[in-house]
Amino acid sequence: MSSSSTIPSQTSKKGTKRKWTHNEDVVLISCLVDLHNKGTYNVDTGFKCGYLLELEQMITTSLPNANLKAKPHIESRIKTLKKEWTIVYDMEQGRGTSRFGWDHERNMVVAEDPVWDSYIISHKDAAQFRKRSFLFFNELSDIYAKDRATIQDAQTPANVLNEIEEDVAHGIDDGSACEHVIGLDDVDISVTQPQPSVGKRNQNSTTSKK
């Protein structure tokens, strides 16, 4: 079994792509959860403009030597994690996917082989999670599940991931179009602020079915 975000951080030759370490992912998700719980930047579709800059400062407080910037690092990583979460969420909670379950100990989607074989015919992106964990499913569900459920009611399976690209193009959810609107002068981040435990579920059972 493989898990996401375990490769040491590095920048590609192009200078924009970056491999995130597991610890960096944990801090990112922790800060994202904290920001969502505060509610200052919350909107129905995720977060409003300016949230990336606040995330940058929160992450810098915890990882001062990581040099993670709102753009391109944090913006790109959140986009990737949200896309992966969407794939997993649609298997775990989507319409017509009741034969999938969730292994709480391994943080994996589980199903019988025939179920997988049938599903990935029309959902090729899901194949990667057949033997791969997704550690931050619970945390990202708390943030994005409401919006995802609304989208599922209005779209077909062929449109499953399109709204993510549209959000980015319109500056919604990633903050790229107007992050200059809100500065960092009013950000109140404590150096000693506690970080919630991320990447683990609290359920007692190992595997659940809807």
TrEMBL record:
Cited InterPro entries: Myb/SANT-like_dom
User: Which residue ranges does the record assign to the Myb/SANT-like domain?
Assistant: 19-119
What is the protein's name according to its record? Myb/SANT-like domain-containing protein
Q: Which organism is it from?
A: Theobroma cacao (Cacao)
